[in-house]
Write a structure and sequence with these properties.
single chain, about 325 residues, alpha+beta, Jelly Rolls, 6-stranded antiparallel sheet, 3-stranded antiparallel sheet, globular
Length: about 325
């Protein structure tokens, strides 16, 4: 639970670092689930000739290194959401009991409840990020889940329908996120204005509006979290270490308010008024994503943000 000092700091600065939000068992469950997923995926990729080394005697990290060295889309099968575009009936993503356990973790929900209230919906704008050392990446790599993340506001990747939605983002560290690992940078301060964003390789704040002068780093150890107001500008540093940096972005909003990406499924993670509304079965969560994918694969593409690439401030 957050103290009064922490709540005041969040209100004043727009973000808060919370150490030890997850316990070791939570992290171990995630690592085991992703290790099992990697074993299955890597065997298939090796059989297809997409990765060079046979899986025998390779660790999870060894396999991941072979993946990002290969010239194929290895990330999406690990993500916990669908991509921005090109959704097909077989587009992969990962929903499992350990990921569901994160999204519904009581310690996380206790903190979220203090910030947005007792009726909590799990927002579908969420991701896993497993970032290799920057030295190993090609200079052309620009994807936010693999390399540095551009300056942005989380409200900036929603549609206008969510502008009045009360929400928070919980950025969870599965491995240490110190400065050398590419921790987050934050421009602290209480704000409720949405800065102009551009669509380049990422959706990010237009260069002339980036508040870099006020930026501070927000390192956090494994099991800790950085929690954001949706209007707080933030980015990530490059991973200059020799190890991967692994994190999850989870987002929550007040139940009944728009999520900002209504074509993706939400679920009620906590309801003090009516606990029977809470989703407790991860397989039902997975089914909602499978159904959404099938529907989106057969319909015209839907926008996932509000920004035009040809806006004057993006020239």
């Amino acid at each position: 639970m957050l103290t009064e000092n922490q709540l005041e700091r969040f209100d004043r600065q727009g973000f808060l670092t919370v150490e030890n939000l997850l316990d070791p068992a939570d992290i171990a469950a995630i690592k085991q689930e992703y290790s099992t997923l990697m074993d299955r995926l890597y065997r298939g990729w090796f059989d297809q000739g997409l990765v060079a080394l046979p899986p025998d005697d390779l660790s999870f990290w060894d396999k991941l290194e072979q993946c990002y060295k290969g010239d194929f889309e290895w990330y999406q099968p690990f993500d916990i959401s669908l991509p921005h575009h090109g959704i097909a009936s077989d587009t992969p993503m990962h929903i499992g009991p350990a990921v569901f356990g994160l999204a519904t973790n009581p310690r996380i929900l206790d903190v979220v409840e203090q910030l947005i209230g007792p009726e909590i919906t799990s927002n579908p704008i969420q991701h896993v990020r497993i970032k290799p050392p920057a030295r190993a990446l090609p200079q052309t790599e620009a994807r936010a889940h693999i390399t540095t993340t551009d300056w942005h506001q989380d409200m900036g990747v929603t549609l206008e329908e969510a502008d009045n939605t009360k929400m928070v983002t919980v950025w969870l560290a599965i491995t240490d996120a110190d400065i050398e690992h590419g921790c987050l940078q934050v421009a602290p301060g209480k704000r409720s204005d949405l800065l102009p964003h551009c669509t380049k390789s990422q959706v990010g704040i237009a260069d002339q509006f980036i508040p870099v002068v006020d930026a501070i780093s927000a390192p956090v150890k494994a099991g800790g979290a950085v929690i954001f107001n949706p209007f707080t500008p933030h980015a990530s540093l490059p991973n200059t270490s020799d190890v991967f940096r692994w994190s999850f972005d989870l987002r929550y909003n007040v139940t009944g308010q728009p999520t900002g990406r209504g074509q993706f499924p939400e679920f009620i993670a906590r309801s003090r008024a009516d606990p029977s509304r809470e989703l407790t079965d991860w397989q039902k969560w997975k089914t909602t994503w499978d159904d959404a994918r099938d529907h989106l694969a057969s319909t015209a593409p839907k926008p996932q943000h509000r920004w035009a690439s040809d806006a004057p401030y993006c020239a």
